[in-house]
Structure formats: structure tokens, C-alpha cells
Design brief:
Rossmann fold; 7 strands; 14% strand
């Protein structure tokens, strides 16, 4: 497979970091975006310790200067991986945090794609990979805000795939289930920053059982390393595989369920 220029957003930790290191080890020219300078310097040091050569830039997706700088890398493959997770019921999470979730997870990443796509369409070659989620297919209770952003990503990626087909732009989604990257742990804790249980209309149950079921993220990282540069990959990649029938059943259930 030809070596490519790959830009990953939100990739100084978790799935993105693992995929970035693996792609760089394969010889791709990898640029990693980190939200803060601290994340940038920390990940540069991590890559150096691992003996991996890649570029790390500051990419706060809400900062226009950072967006312009990132778009100037002119990647062959753009991996839209950045995300925040706000736990709590959809009627309790403060609207400011709901809006912020959409700004980071959806709008700012679509904006970055729109900055980069004109060059891709002009040369009729390029690839956009969206990191969605199992929660992009169905909405787990008390993760409604996060799931809503991922449902939006699913819609955007789907129409983008069709609309850019004649420009030879490849579009795919990555749909991880429960993996132990630390992202779900901090997301589950986030509601404690803005509430007490006495104030909640729909109090959140303990997250411990869910977090205890998380899996080793390496299988998802390995899959990402394979699929990110592969323009002929499956449109949707969901892991672990046992979650595929679960999500399909949840979608079917919506056709049978009663309103109350």
C-alpha cells in the first residue's frame, strides 16, 4: 500500500494515539492533532521514546488559527477522531455542555473536513474517516448527549460517502464499543462536575458495572491501523464483533417498542 499523509484529530491519547503510532511505524507521514500544548509536548515525547517519527501539532478544533494550520498539512487521509463525552440524562445535562459536545464532536470536525476537501476533490483522490461509536447506531441511556453527536456523525458520513463518490473520495466510519482507553471512565464521571443527585430529573445509575466490562483497546487500534489508509475498506467497522448483533437488535426494537 502506498505511503500516505494522514492527519488525525484528537489523537494524543486512546485509540487515536495507538493508531497514529502504528501508522507512522508503517511509514506513513502522520500528523497528530492535540487540543493543548501540554498534550502536544507530552505526545511528542511519547513518540520519541517509542522510536516513532511523526508530527504533532496543536489543534484545538474550536480555534480557527489551529484549523487553518491543520488544513495546510493537505492530508491524503483525514481521520476525525476528537470527541468529548458528557454523561447524564438528556433532560439533565446542561444545555451549554450539550452545545459544546456538538461543537467539538460534530461541527468543528465537519468544518475542518470542509477546509481540506476542496484539495481532495480537485485531485479526485482522498479519504475521510469518522470515528463514530457503537453509540452512533443506538443510544445507551444516560449517554444521550454523546450518542446524539455520534448519530449526527453517522448521518454526515453516510451522505458524504454518496455525495463525494464521483470525486473519488473514500468515506468510512469506525464504531468502537466499550474499550478501556480511559475515555469512558472520565465521561462517566463528568456529570459530578455540574450536579448533585437531588437536582436530577433522571438520576444516573452507578457506572461501575459498565466500566468493568471494558475490553483491551488493542484490537480496535489494530483494526484502525489497517483500515485508515485503505480506501477500499468496509464503510463501517464495529468492534468488538459481539456487539454487532446487539446493535442490530436495538435498531429493530425501535420498530416494536411502545411509547410508554
Amino acid at each position: 500500500m502506498a505511503k500516505q499523509k494522514i492527519l488525525l484529530t484528537g489523537a494524543t491519547s486512546g485509540f487515536g494515539a495507538g493508531a497514529a503510532l502504528g501508522l507512522a511505524q508503517q511509514g506513513h507521514h502522520v500528523t497528530v492533532g492535540g487540543e493543548t500544548w501540554q498534550q502536544v509536548t507530552t505526545f511528542r515525547a511519547e513518540a520519541e521514546r517509542a522510536g516513532v517519527k511523526l508530527d504533532v501539532i496543536k489543534l484545538d478544533l474550536l480555534n480557527e488559527f489551529d484549523q487553518v494550520h491543520a488544513a495546510a498539512t493537505e492530508p491524503d487521509v483525514l481521520v476525525l477522531n476528537a470527541a468529548v463525552q458528557e454523561a447524564g440524562s438528556i433532560v439533565d445535562v446542561p444545555m451549554e455542555l450539550v452545545r459544546r459536545s456538538f461543537e467539538i464532536n460534530v461541527f468543528s470536525q465537519l468544518e475542518l473536513a470542509r477546509r481540506i476537501l476542496p484539495r481532495m476533490t480537485a485531485r479526485k483522490r482522498g479519504r475521510i474517516v469518522w470515528t463514530s461509536s457503537m453509540a452512533g447506531i443506538y443510544a445507551p441511556p444516560w449517554l444521550g448527549t454523546y450518542a446524539a453527536t455520534k448519530h449526527a456523525i453517522e448521518a454526515i458520513a453516510s451522505v458524504m460517502r454518496t455525495e463525494l463518490h464521483l470525486s473519488h473520495i473514500s468515506v468510512a466510519t469506525i464504531n468502537p464499543g466499550l474499550y478501556d482507553t480511559g475515555f469512558n471512565d472520565t465521561g462517566a464521571e463528568s456529570y459530578q462536575q455540574w450536579s448533585t443527585d437531588a437536582e436530577l430529573m433522571a438520576p444516573m445509575p452507578p457506572a461501575g458495572p459498565m466500566l468493568a466490562a471494558q475490553k483491551d483497546p488493542q484490537e480496535m487500534i489494530d483494526a484502525m491501523i489497517d483500515l485508515i489508509p485503505d480506501k477500499h475498506s468496509a464503510y463501517r467497522t464495529m468492534l468488538p464483533e459481539e456487539m454487532i448483533p446487539v446493535t442490530k437488535r436495538e435498531q429493530e426494537h425501535a420498530w416494536e417498542a411502545k411509547a410508554i
